[in-house]
Amino acid sequence: MINKNILDKTKKKLIILNTLVVGVLFLIFSMFIYGYFYNLTYKEVDKGLYRQFDMITKKTKEEFRYPIKSGNMAIGPQGHITYILKNGKVVYGYENDRANYIRPYEYYDKVKNGITSYKYGGHNFRELKQTQGEYTLEIIKVVDVEVGLLKQLVFVLLIGMMLSLGVVYLTSRFLTQKSLEPIEASWENQVLFVQDASHELRTPLAIIFSKIEGIIKRPESTVDDEMKNLTIVMKEARRLRKLVSDLLKLTKEDAIVTINKSTFNLEELVKEILVDYRDIASLQDKVVNFNSKLRNINIYCDREKIKQLLIILIDNAIKYTNPEGRIDVILSESMHSINIIIKDNGIGIKEDEIKNIFNRFYRSNSLRGKDIEGSGVGLSIAKTIISNLRGNIEVESKIREGTSFYVNIPK
Ligand SMILES: Nc1ncnc2c1ncn2[C@@H]1O[C@H](COP(=O)(O)OP(=O)(O)OP(=O)(O)O)[C@@H](O)[C@H]1O
Ligand SMILES: [Mg+2]
Fold first, then answer.
1. What is the predicted pLDDT for the residue at 57?
2. In what helix (H) or strand (E) does residue 210 lie, and over which residues does it extend?
3. What is the best residue among 308, 315, 357, 386 to mutate for testing ligand 1's pocket, by most ligand atoms within 8 Å of CB?
4. β-strands 326-333, 287-292: how paired?
5. In this predicted structure, what is the pLDDT of residue 248?
6. Alpha carbons 285 and 281: distance in angstroms, whole number
7. How many Å lie between the centroid of ligand 1 and the Cα of residue 350?
8. Which residues contact 250 (CB under 8 A, 6 or more apart)?
9. Domain locations in the chain as residue ranges
10. Which ligand does the CA of 363 lie closest to?
């Protein structure tokens, strides 16, 4: 299905995006950590170099001008290698060191004033170099351990990054799946809805077509002759019109879903609705009674939704009662909920049909042949409203005796 493809693509995009964002964040984090430890490590090393430098320059205040005997201070307390050069020639250092004088640098990196770092003979060095007149003082430290540790840190960060990317990939796959589930469901719902709707539209259209075809085939007949067929066409056209307007209502399901709460007087709302419906009812010799047992008539809920819900149920109750029927609207409340009962002594619903009445476009079979208009969407809207208000609705019905709808809405 095309729909599935679009959703799958979206899923993939979301997963990649999530993983990428986390990857970049982790990279920045890793760079920060690395930078922090790099600075920390070399700050200590450089401190050592300066300390050694101070020590030597103090000790050699005089001697510095005159070459010191070798072997004196070549290796400092912290493993520093020291060279003193005069006019570019090594005049001080271990005999050994003098021979292996660390030159030329394989990789030379000027870090900051006077300090360089380089590789030589497979080792890493950091060097402080100062020149005074014809003398040059070089203090060098082997930083293999530090470089090794930093390399290990990079390794650990890389592993961490891989692992976290893996974990993020899996979690984002799971979360994307979860978060797209309702969209998927509503998408499937839409497809079903369009299928249902077109099916519903087809029936009246088919009837209209067949009746009109029949009429066209009998050009000699008068309007009077065709009165029966024309009435049917008219009726089906009317049904079509109602269906279309109901469908339009359904496409505004957004409006059903979004909740807009306020405090309002429930008794007043029912009375307001009943003003219109009592007129309709009395034309058909039906009575609508209203009885409220509310302690607190003001409730905090979505007024428009409650109104819509009441209208759907009251409209049905009046529609599906016989002349001289009786309809009761009863309000009461319990600890946590408002209870609304809408009861009629009308035609009732067959037991095996009760489970279907909340389905879109469902109309009871026993309505066939009866001239009661409807498209079967009222109760499906009522159900959506109630579930959005986190309430619940129950039906009790006996065929030819009557129907009661019990609505509970949390306070
Ligand atoms: N109070 C009732 N008494 C008997 N049957 C009822 C009652 N309320 C609902 N029904 C049955 O449930 C079906 C679905 O009701 P619903 O309100 O969804 O649609 P409808 O009344 O047929 O059309 P509309 O969309 O115009 O309301 C009705 O067709 C009817 O068969
Ligand atoms: Mg209805």
1. 77
2. helix 144-217
3. 357
4. parallel
5. 83
6. 6
7. 12
8. 193, 197, 360, 377, 381
9. 2-148, 258-410
10. 1
Specify the pLDDT at position 72: 41
State residue 96's pLDDT score.
59
- Measured in Å, residue 309 CA sits from the centre of ligand 1 at 13
User: Ligand 1 centre from 367 Cα, in Å?
Assistant: 9
Closest to 327 in 3D by CA, of 338, 315, 337, 317: 317
* Tokens 């070549």, residue located: 74
Q: Which amino acid is at 133?
A: G
Longest dimension (CA), the chain: 138
Is the CB of residue 243 below 6 angstroms from any atom belonging to ligand 1?
no
Looking at residue 196, its pLDDT comes to 79
Give the pLDDT of residue 32: 96
d(CA 197, CA 377): 10
Give strand pairing partners of 342. Answer: 329, 405
Show the low-confidence residues of the chain (pLDDT under 70).
Answer: 1-3, 59-79, 94-107, 253-256
Which CATH number fits the domain 2-148, given the four candidates 1.10.287, 1.10.1740, 3.30.450, 3.40.50?
A: 3.30.450
d(CA 211, CA 42): 95
Which of 256-275 are b and which e, b meaning 16 or more Cβ less than 10 Å from the residue's Cβ?
Answer: beeeeeeebebeebbeebbe
Contacts of the segment 154-163: beta carbons below 8 A, 24+ positions apart: 154/34, 157/30, 157/33, 157/34, 160/26, 160/30, 161/23, 161/26, 161/27, 161/30
Which pLDDT score is estimated for 316? 96
Residue 353 Cα to ligand 2 midpoint, Å, equals 15
Topology of the domain comprising 258-410: Heat Shock Protein 90 (3.30.565)
Rounded CA-CA distance 410/230 in Å is 50
- The whole-number pLDDT of residue 182 equals 85
Which residues neighbour 118 within 8 Å (Cβ) at sequence distance 6 or greater? Answer: 105, 106, 107, 108, 109, 124, 125, 127
Q: What is the pLDDT of residues 307-322, one digit of tens each?
A: 999 999 999 999 999 9
